[in-house]
Description:
alpha+beta
Amino acid sequence: xxxxxxxxxxxxxxxxxxxxxxxxxxxxxxxxxxxxxxxxxxxxxxxxxxxxxxxxxxxxxxxxxxxxxxxxxxxxxxxxxxxxxxxxxxxxxxxxxxxxxxxxxxxxxxxxxxxxxxxxxxxxxxxxxxxxxxxxxxxxxxxxxxxxxxxxxxxxxxxxxxxxxxxxxxxxxxxxxxxxxxxxxxxxxxxxxxxxxxxxxxxxxxxxxxxxxxxxxxxxxxxxxxxxxxxxxxxxxxxxxxxxxxxxxxxxxxxxxxxxxxxxxxxxxxxxxxxxxx
Length: 278
């Protein structure tokens, strides 16, 4: 595996698991797979279940005793006490993209400490692209061929240009998003699926990703970790860092996120806060 800079052992282990899960997903992607609905009306396939089982087993071996909060386990009512250090796993983020076969689905694995994502991997197996990051060590983009990394290069956010590039959800548009973006000089808006949106901001291909719709912590943690490792930040709408581990919430489901914005250039947060304050 060619790489420009060494990857921390923690990230390397998560990358290996994501690559293995990606192979499981692609094997099912190549078949005439069935699609079911969960209790919340979201879609689920055997790829979600099989990839999650592989990741759960792998994390238990690599990090015994560390709790794992995973999407399909949570849907089945199996949610461990998260504590100060735990993993968040979405084995197949962007199931709608998987079902529509547009390739923009990802494997997400993140480690949370004291409410913040400190390491994460986002792997898009159909696209052959992987992103990884560890806060304090850096972030990387890798190309994958035949389930192996063929390159791995450092990435970082860019300084905000005069005209910003915003990115949003392909499958979950929010009417309020356009109104919120009017406070910025937006030059372009691109739609993309899954947690790849965080990664495009992390590598400097976009500047803003507002999400004024429903997400869960396992949807965002890995991409959030990559973005933070690349120098960006994810905040709630009041400008405070997005936190993780909301096991119990009055009036909302466990691990549901508030609305948030992912920023490349942290100076944009101050701009947004100033606009909100009038």
